[in-house]
């Protein structure tokens, strides 16, 4: 009787149960035991679909390494990812406003990245560490990205001067420049770049922003390119607008909203 209990459990041979457990823990070896014991296929677990860890890699765009014992280093690891948030902001503003001004700025941001990749392949200077970051390090792409962004924003804030007593341009420009400085410093603190690489990226980003703004707003706009775009049938069907001539867009939108409310009230009366 005891030998029968050892051989069977709930009508299933013990050899099959052992083979099933071996298949779940030892993979191919367990399958071999099951085959040798004559276990039925329904008692075997399917092979795992999870690939081995040594065959996987991380997405370098979002993979940031930092010192675990340094709280400031952890904070900078989040700060250094902020260009991704800026890109998401670009897309959100373009979709919701349907305005050429942020679209033109975003196009310059993308062109700035292309220039950065070309410069890296021309200079071919390695990063300070072999295991942090991919590709070449001169000039720093994060630094060039943030330098373009902050410079272009500052140009938009001050291009028509500042009204007496106005503080918004100063606050916006100051915050953006401080933000850019933190991102640029994070690349050195986290050992992804040298000081020379981030300084070179900062200079390239500033120069590109100034040159791009001059070309788009002093050459292409007077030529009527943007007017042609907004008057195109496709652009008109999507309600694309160009608010470059508006000094204070927030005030302009607020006044339009007030006018819409007034018109709605007059219709009710």
TrEMBL record:
<dbReference type="InterPro" id="IPR000326">
    <property type="entry name" value="PAP2/HPO"/>
</dbReference>
<comment type="similarity">
    <text>Belongs to the dolichyldiphosphatase family.</text>
</comment>
<feature type="domain" description="Phosphatidic acid phosphatase type 2/haloperoxidase">
    <location>
        <begin position="100"/>
        <end position="213"/>
    </location>
</feature>
<feature type="transmembrane region" description="Helical">
    <location>
        <begin position="75"/>
        <end position="95"/>
    </location>
</feature>
<comment type="pathway">
    <text>Protein modification; protein glycosylation.</text>
</comment>
<protein>
    <recommendedName>
        <fullName>Dolichyldiphosphatase</fullName>
        <ecNumber>3.6.1.43</ecNumber>
    </recommendedName>
</protein>
<feature type="transmembrane region" description="Helical">
    <location>
        <begin position="165"/>
        <end position="185"/>
    </location>
</feature>
<comment type="function">
    <text>Required for efficient N-glycosylation. Necessary for maintaining optimal levels of dolichol-linked oligosaccharides. Hydrolyzes dolichyl pyrophosphate at a very high rate and dolichyl monophosphate at a much lower rate. Does not act on phosphatidate.</text>
</comment>
<dbReference type="GO" id="GO:0005789">
    <property type="term" value="C:endoplasmic reticulum membrane"/>
</dbReference>
<keyword id="KW-0472">Membrane</keyword>
<feature type="transmembrane region" description="Helical">
    <location>
        <begin position="197"/>
        <end position="215"/>
    </location>
</feature>
<dbReference type="GO" id="GO:0006487">
    <property type="term" value="P:protein N-linked glycosylation"/>
</dbReference>
<dbReference type="GO" id="GO:0008610">
    <property type="term" value="P:lipid biosynthetic process"/>
</dbReference>
<dbReference type="InterPro" id="IPR039667">
    <property type="entry name" value="Dolichyldiphosphatase_PAP2"/>
</dbReference>
<keyword id="KW-0812">Transmembrane</keyword>
<keyword id="KW-0378">Hydrolase</keyword>
<keyword id="KW-1133">Transmembrane helix</keyword>
<feature type="transmembrane region" description="Helical">
    <location>
        <begin position="141"/>
        <end position="158"/>
    </location>
</feature>
<keyword id="KW-0256">Endoplasmic reticulum</keyword>
<dbReference type="Pfam" id="PF01569">
    <property type="entry name" value="PAP2"/>
</dbReference>
<dbReference type="GO" id="GO:0047874">
    <property type="term" value="F:dolichyldiphosphatase activity"/>
</dbReference>
<dbReference type="InterPro" id="IPR036938">
    <property type="entry name" value="PAP2/HPO_sf"/>
</dbReference>
């Amino acid at each position: 009787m005891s030998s029968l209990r050892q051989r069977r459990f709930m009508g299933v041979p013990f050899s099959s149960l052992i083979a099933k457990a071996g298949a779940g823990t030892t993979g191919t070896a367990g399958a071999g035991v099951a085959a040798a014991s004559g276990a039925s296929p329904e008692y075997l677990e399917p092979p795992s679909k999870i690939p081995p860890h040594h065959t996987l890699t991380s997405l370098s765009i979002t993979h940031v390494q930092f010192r675990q014992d340094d709280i400031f280093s952890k904070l900078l690891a989040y700060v250094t990812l902020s260009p991704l948030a800026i890109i998401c902001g670009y897309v959100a503003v373009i979709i919701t406003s349907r305005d050429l001004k942020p679209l033109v700025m975003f196009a310059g941001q993308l062109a700035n990245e292309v220039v950065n990749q070309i410069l890296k392949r021309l200079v071919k200077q390695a990063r300070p560490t072999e295991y942090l970051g991919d590709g070449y390090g001169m000039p720093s792409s994060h630094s060039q990205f943030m330098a373009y962004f902050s410079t272009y924003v500052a140009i938009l804030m001050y291009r028509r001067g500042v009204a007496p007593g106005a503080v918004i341009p100063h606050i916006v420009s100051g915050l953006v420049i401080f933000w850019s400085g933190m991102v640029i410093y994070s690349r050195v603190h986290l050992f992804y770049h040298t000081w020379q690489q981030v300084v070179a990226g900062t200079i390239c980003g500033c120069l590109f922003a100034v040159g791009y703004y001059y070309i788009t707003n002093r050459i292409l706009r007077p030529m009527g390119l943007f007017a042609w775009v907004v008057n195109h049938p496709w652009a008109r069907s999507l309600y694309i607008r160009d608010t470059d001539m508006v000094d204070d867009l927030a005030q302009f939108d607020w006044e339009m909203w007030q006018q819409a409310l007034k018109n709605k009230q007059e219709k009710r009366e």
